[in-house]
Amino acid sequence: MRTKPNSARLSLTFISTMVSTMVFLALGSASALAQQNAPTQAPSSSLDTESLHSISPIQLERLKSLSRQKNCFSCHTLDKNFVGPSYKDIAAHYTSSPLVETQLTQRLLHGTRGKWGVIPMPSNPQLSEAEGREIINLILKLK
Ligand code: HEC
């Protein structure tokens, strides 16, 4: 019976090792590329802005700065329930429309209770109606 010469068996082993090394290297560089393309800066909030299609990064910044300025963040956060419901939950709860915006703006300016829990929201006289409407409009984009 003829057996393959050792050298042939060796070169087969060599070739298959080479092939798997090449595949390994190719996969490695693909994942390195993917990592290069990933954003290098972590978003400043834990909100996953990639999944929010209706708010732009600029609008999100505007919402955050208005909310800081107008003291909303002492009771609300973007994505976690705190004293009041999270902005994200509010956005998910309402369908955006001019009527809903008007209603929420009025509740925001004059205070409201009983929609989310037992804690009432006091009136917010530090807001003009236009500012209130702008914040509401931005909150409702968080979906
Ligand atoms: C003192 C705490 C507090 C502050 C300050 C506050 N909120 Fe609220 N907010 C609440 C609470 C509590 C609720 C839930 C009220 C309820 O159950 O109806 C609420 C509810 C809301 C709602 C939902 C209203 C509804 O009818 O569904 C919006 C929108 C809102 N707040 C936005 C804001 C914005 C914008 C600011 C800043 C201008 C602000 N809040 C400031 C505590 C606060």
Provide keyphrases for this structure:
about 140 residues; binds heme C; about 55% helix; 2 domains; mainly alpha; Cytochrome Bc1 Complex, Chain D, domain 2; about 0% strand
Q: Would you kindly provide a written description of the structure presented here, covering whatever features stand out?
A:
- The chain is mostly helical.
- It has 2 domains: 1-36; 55-139, Cytochrome c-like domain (Cytochrome Bc1 Complex, Chain D, domain 2).
- Helix content is 53%, strand content 0%.
- Helix 2 crosses helix 5 and helix 4 (98-110) packs across helix 5.
- Bound molecules: heme C (HEC).
- What percentage of the residues does DSSP assign to strands (E)? under 5%
Structural class per helix/strand content? mainly alpha
What's the CATH class label of the largest domain? Mainly Alpha
Q: Give a short account of the largest sheet.
A: none
Uncertain segments: 27-44
Could you tell me the CATH topology label of the largest domain. Answer: Cytochrome Bc1 Complex, Chain D, domain 2
- CATH architecture descriptor name of the largest domain: Orthogonal Bundle
Bound molecules: heme C
Q: What is the string of SSEs from the N terminus onward? A: HHHHH
Number of H- or I-type helical stretches: 5
Ends distance: 73 Å
| Number of DSSP E strands | 0
Estimated radius of gyration: 28 Å
Outline: elongated
Query: How many structurally independent domains?
Result: 2
Helix percent band: 40-55%
The name of the CATH superfamily of the largest domain reads Cytochrome c-like domain
